Structures are given as structure tokens and as C-alpha cells.
Amino acid sequence: MNDPLDEAVKNLFGLSYLFPYQRLVITNILEAAEAAQNDDTDRETNGRQIVILPTGAGKSLCFQLPAMMIEGLTLVIYPILSLMADQQRRLHERGFSPVTIRGGQSKEEREEIWQKLESGEAKFIIANPEVLLTPQVKEKLEKIKIMHIVIDEAHCVSEWGESFRPSYLEIGSIINAFNPPLVTAFTATASAPVLDKIKKYIFSDTQAAQIVGNPDRPNIYYSAKPCINRDLAVRDLLIQNERPAIVFCSSRPGTEKLARYLRNELKEMGYDWNKEIRFYHAGLSREEKTNTENWLLKNTEAVLVSTCAFGMGVDKADVRTVIHRDCAPSVEAYLQESGRAGRDGEQSKAFLLWGPDDEAALARTKKQSDRNRLSMLLEFAKDIKNCRRHALLKMLNYDSGGEVPEKICCDVCEKEVGDTMREEPSILEFFKKNKRRFTQTQATAVLTQNKTFRWSQEEASRTIGYLIKTKKLRRLTYFPWRDKITL
Predict the structure, then answer these.
(1) Over the stretch 111-144, which tens digit does the pLDDT of each residue have?
(2) Which residue in 354, 352, 347 sits closest to 337, CA to CA?
(3) What pLDDT, in 10s, does the model give residues 219-241?
(4) Short-list 378, 415, 54, 408, CA closest to 211
(5) I need a labelling partner for 159 at 20 to 30 A (CA). Which of 91, 129, 202, 430 fits?
(6) For the segment 280-320, what is each residue's pLDDT rounded down to a tens digit?
(7) 320-374 tens-digit pLDDT
(8) 244 in the Ramachandran plot: left (φ > 0), alpha (ψ -120 to 50) or beta?
């Protein structure tokens, strides 16, 4: 006897099989839908589940396939427009007819959407929390039978909801307003504190089944590199490693500045792929984002410098290198973004750059929950004794069993790690040759003018200050060498 799920995934998506976790999630949804139609309210979790599956494990199929098999509409809530556009594109490619509800749509566009939903032509609604909270949209959707609400990238409730996206804290009220029989929250990573926030803000602390897959990505080689001049470090990592590559920065201006820097530097060094460097952030127009996404999908030499706006965006399977120029705000964010590498299962690398300014940023952070998240990632970066893969899994409360992949793992296991800042040897050699000769200000000026170092005054001064703080250099306090630097 043929398995109905195998038949459905083959006929609707052209796939020959489902992964075990996909099958479990989909079966739960279908059984809960059948129970809802039969008015069976005795089910323990009442159609509620939290699904934690690693990047590349096929989360989208877990709600796309059931949507084609159950009565009623599936509403999928996404955090960013690029992810909404990518999902719509992929559904269209498979012959489905989703509708996207977002801000800025005309009256005619909205009327067409309502007509498609009421006629049954569309089975998917793609939206973000903000638009669902608008009175017109909310009132309209309350009248339409929504069977299944899906919250993708559910960790955003914790990371964004309590800071710059308060609409995420209202997802529970959206669910209550539409009162669907089925609610599923998906995320690739969730530590215990993040999981608590998902339960609180999405499920109002009511019981939900929890399915946790192995978050490990054994094809990714993890490495953390201490440095002061991050732009120069990014340049060298791009030269030394495979492309396509994504470089994550913490700010919009930072992405643009770094992209220009890399183009100019690589051009001077004679690399013709300097033309294949672009930037991406939430401040771009919709047309600019679409053009950049299409360019990236087709480009095997691409280097995209981006904020987290791309971290949950376009699904490009062959990214070989991911570099975090700036520390991600949490372990979850780092796993999500580094997980953009190697989604095709091929060997890939993820580099995390860190330095004294991260510790300064931690000291400036006032909110305790934000301090806790950032300090966890910094501890991970600075740890040169424990396997990075095991450390990441442990922070996500997943027991890896102590197993290490045979071929690739991390810089700690490969003994390619140290606590020495990238710039330290050059600085220490400089002061070794110039003991008691320069003050910090004088040495900064000399190093800034040296073409070998290629540092700004701020970077040179910060490096010397860091080495004094860590007692690898010292400032003399006695005459006649007062304030001069020595080893």
C-alpha cells in the first residue's frame, strides 16, 4: 500500500521522500486538522506545536505540504519582506497561487487578494505581524476561515519583539482574533530563554508539543578570530576562502562602507572579482533588494555584505563562506546566519571576528537579557580549549553526545586557534625594536603612516591600548622615559 504522504510530496513537490522530522511535524498537523474537523477537543496539545529544526532541514515543506492537503487557509507570518518575497517566488515556481499582504498595497491590489481568498483560488496567505494588526486586514481575515497559522523564524519574538519590533509581542492576540485550530511555530535555533519567550508570546503559556531536531551542521567548519582591524581581516579571509560568501555587519552604514572598502582594496591587489561585491540592508528599496537577491542567486563569485536583514532571506544553497565582521547579538542569531553556509550539504566555513570593542559594547549594554546573550557568544569566541561545535550545541541545550565529525569540525579541534589578536605580533615586534622611544600617541602616528599596517589612528591606538590593558605592553612612569611604551 502506498504511503499517502509519499504520494502527496511526490505529486505536489516532485520529491521522492520526507525526512523523519518532516514526516513527524506534517503528521501532527494533519492529525490535528482532522481532529478539528471532527470537533475532537480531547487532544493533549490541541493543534499547537513548536518545531526546532536546523537551517536547511526543510521547514517550509512542513507547512506547505499540509496546506495543500487540508481544508481552509494557511497563514504564514514572516519577519521580513525579503523572506516573504522568497517564499512567494518558490510557491509560484511549484504551481501554487499564494497571496502576500503587506504595507503600501493599493485598494485594487487588496480587492484582488480578498477575491482570491474568498474564491478558494489561494490557499496561502503570506504576511508580517504589522500588517495583520491593521484594523482593515484584521477585520477581513476574521471573517475568512483560517485553519493553520504558522510563525516562521519564531525566535524573532524574543530577539526583536522586546526591542524594535513590538508587533511581535502581539502575535498571541493575532492568533486569538483568528482562532485557528492549528498553530505551529518554527525556528532553527532556540536556547531555553528564547523558548520561554516563544511559549509566552505565541502560545500564552498554554501547552504545545515540542519537536527538536539536531541543530548541528557537520559540514560547516567553525572558526573564531580575534582582531582589531576587522575590514582587513575580512579582506584576507575572502581572498583565502571559497566564494560565494556572505559577510554580516551590525549596521546599514557599515555594510556600505565595507563593500566599498573591499572593492577598492581588491581592485588595487589585482583581483577581478572585486566587481562581484554588493551590499544589502533593510534601507534599500524593494526593487534594489530584488535585484540584489536575483544577482546573488545566479552568481558563483558573489560576495554579499549584509545586515541581519538577509539572514532569514533568500535561500541560496551554495554559499561556501560566511564571515561575521561584527558579533551577532546572540547564539541563535549566529547559528541562523552562519547556517546560510553550505545548505547544499557541501563543506563550508563560518568565521566569527571578535575583539576588544565587543567587550566594550558588552559593558555599554544595559539590559540584562541582552548582556547575557552577547556574553554567551563572546565566551564562545574566546574559548580556545573546547570544541566550538559542542559549545554551540550545549548553549542550545542539545546533547551532542561528544561525537565529532571525522573530517571537519572547528579551529579548536584542528589546533588552529590562539588568543593572540591578529595585529599583536606586528605591534610587539615594533615596540621590541623601539623600546622606550615612543609614547602611545607618537607610536599611533608612526603606525598609521606605515603602509604595511594599513590602520587608521583609531585602530592603532585601540590596539596599543588593548595590549597595555592585557599587560603585553607597559607604559613607563619614571623619568626620563615617562609615558614611553616598552615590552
Answers:
(1) 999 999 988 889 899 999 999 999 999 989 988 8
(2) 352
(3) 999 999 998 889 989 999 999 99
(4) 54
(5) 91
(6) 998 888 889 889 988 998 899 999 999 887 756 567 889 99
(7) 999 999 988 888 788 888 988 998 889 999 999 998 888 878 888 887 777 877 8
(8) beta
Q: Which of 225, 413, 404, 406 is nearest to 321 (CA)?
A: 225
CATH number of 220-395: 3.40.50.300
In angstroms, rounded to a whole number, what is the distance separating the alpha carbons of residues 56 and 142?
33
Count other C-beta atoms under 10 Å from residue 9's C-beta. Answer: 22
pLDDT at 95: 81
Q: Give the pLDDT confidence score for residue 2 in this predicted structure.
A: 62
Domain locations in the chain as residue ranges: 4-212, 220-395, 424-486
Q: At CA 424, angle to CA 390 and CA 417, rounded to 5? A: 20
Residue with cell 504520494: 7
**Integer Cα distance of 115 and 155 in angstroms:** 33
pLDDT for the residue 290:
84
Residues 292-319, buried b or exposed e (16+ Cβ, 10 A)? bbeebbebeebbbbbbbbbbbbbbbebb
Neighbours of 273 (CB within 10 A): 15
The CATH homologous superfamily of the domain defined by 4-212: P-loop containing nucleotide triphosphate hydrolases (3.40.50.300)
Cis ω for the linkage preceding 98 (within 30 of 0): no
191 or 65: which carries more pLDDT confidence?
65
Q: Are 111 and 140 in contact (CB under 8 A)?
A: no
Contact status, residue 28 vs residue 62, Cβ threshold 8 Å: no
Residue 293: name the closest of 316, 274, 275, 261 by CA. 316
Cβ–Cβ contacts within 10 Å for residue 391, how many? Answer: 21
